[in-house]
Design goal:
about 140 residues, alpha+beta, 4-stranded antiparallel sheet, 4 helices, 4 strands, about 35% helix, globular
Length: about 140
């Protein structure tokens, strides 16, 4: 079993699977809530806290991706103001996942990010490709 330590090992792991996987990406940024306390503002200024806002989502087959840098450059061409990307992998059953399955999975990812749901099934990376852990 491949231990996923970065984006490239994630791609390798999905490419090695017998099932056809679709990679799911939700690009997000952190913002200070409109109604915030002075303490929340200070924490946010120091790089902590805030609320996550999904900005853009996309799905791709693993073989459509070369590395994280290419993904980040493509995302920046479409949307410059992202800070992190949430990544999931959706396996197909007897073939590739359907468009409906992909759309539902992306919708669930966006809702989990917006409403603070369970994000344990996603890998999160910053713009440099460094892993992020949300606590």
């Amino acid at each position: 079993m491949v231990q996923i330590t970065d984006f490239e090992t994630l791609l390798e792991a999905t490419r090695q699977q017998q099932e056809t996987f679709q990679m799911l990406f939700v690009f997000a940024k952190s913002a200070l809530p409109a109604e915030h306390s002075k303490g929340e503002a200070e924490r946010f200024k120091s790089g902590l806290g805030g609320e996550l806002t999904p900005m853009m989502c996309v799905d791709k087959k693993p073989d459509e991706l070369s590395d994280f840098k290419a993904l980040a450059l493509e995302a920046e061409k479409l949307f410059l103001d992202w800070q992190m990307v949430f990544i999931g992998a959706l396996p197909g059953r007897a073939g590739a996942p359907t468009k409906e399955e992909i759309d539902d999975a992306l919708k669930n990812m966006v809702q989990a990010i917006q409403f603070g749901g369970d994000m344990s099934g996603y890998l999160i990376f910053d713009k440099n490709g460094d892993p992020i852990r949300i606590v």
